[in-house]
Amino acid sequence: MLILVRSIIFNILFYLNTLILLIVALPTFFLPYRAIIWVAKTWGRINLVLLRVVAGVKIEVRGREKIPKGALLVAAKHQSAWETFALVPLFDNPVFIVKRELQWIPVFGWLMIKGRMVPVDRSAGSQALTDMTERARIELADNRQLIIFPEGTRRAAGAEPRYKFGVAQLYAAEGVPCVPIALNSGLFWPRRSIRRIPGTVVIEILDPIPPGLAKDVFYKRLQNDIETATARLIDKGRAEIAASS
C-alpha cells in the first residue's frame, strides 16, 4: 500500500514537473537548439531526484568513462519510459530517434522539433530508413550522440528480445562508434503500471563497438553484448527486490 501511495505522489509530481519545464522551455523557440537540450537535461535530473526521494528508486551508472567524445550511435535497451529522460543527462548533446507522431503533440512535439530530434515515419516502409539515415547524418556531423532503441518499442524486463536490423544499417551508413547500454529499469518502473518499485536502477555503459564492422557481425555483437549484460542486471535487480520485500 505504501508503495502505491508513494508511486501516485511521484506520478503527480512527475507530470507537474513536466508541465513546468514545458512552460520554462517556451522561450527556447527563439534560442539556439542547445537551449532546449539544456532544459531536457534539467527535466531528466529533476525526475531522477523526485524518483529517489519520493518513490525510493535510485540510479547507478556504470562505465560512464567508456563514452567517447564526439559523434556517437547509442543503442540502449528499452524497458520503460524511465530511459527516455534518464539517459539524456549522460551525454553532451543527445538526440533521439523518435516516432514522427510524437512531434504532432502540441508544445511537447514542437519542442522536439526545436531540439532537432530525428523523426521516423513508420508508414513509409524502406523510405523511412533512408530518410532517417540522411537526417541522422546531419545531426552526427554536429557531434551529437544519436540515441536509438534497437527493439523499436518497450519490452518488459526479461522478455524475449526483438531487435530490428535497422540499427545495423544505420551503424554501417554513419561510420561512427556505437555505445551499447544495458539496464534493468523495467523492474522498478514497469511499463503500463503506475507503480514505482523501490530499488536501484542500474545503467551499464558497455564497451564501444568501433565503426567498420560488417552489418551482420555488428548486429550479433550488439544484441549479445546488451542482452548478456541486461540479463545479469535483471537478476541483480530481482534479488534486490526480493531481499527488501
Please provide a written account of the structure.
There is one protein chain. By secondary structure, this protein is of the alpha/beta class. The chain has a single domain, classed as 3-Layer(aba) Sandwich (Glycerol-3-phosphate (1)-acyltransferase). It is 46% helix and 15% strand. Strands 1-7-6-2-5-3-4 form a seven-stranded mixed β-sheet, sandwiched between helices. The protein is globular.
Number of beta strands: 7
Sequence of strands across the biggest β-sheet: 1-7-6-2-5-3-4
Helix/strand/pairing category: alpha/beta
Fraction in helix: 40-55%
**Low-confidence stretches at least 5 residues in length (pLDDT < 50)?**
none
What is the helix tally?
7
Topology (elements, then pairings):
Elements: H1 2-25, H2 34-55, E1 57-62, E2 72-76, H3 82-86, E3 94-99, H4 108-114, E4 118-120, H5 126-140, E5 145-148, H6 166-174, E6 178-183, E7 199-205, H7 215-244
Parallel strand pairs: 1-7, 2-5, 2-6, 3-4, 3-5
Antiparallel strand pairs: 6-7
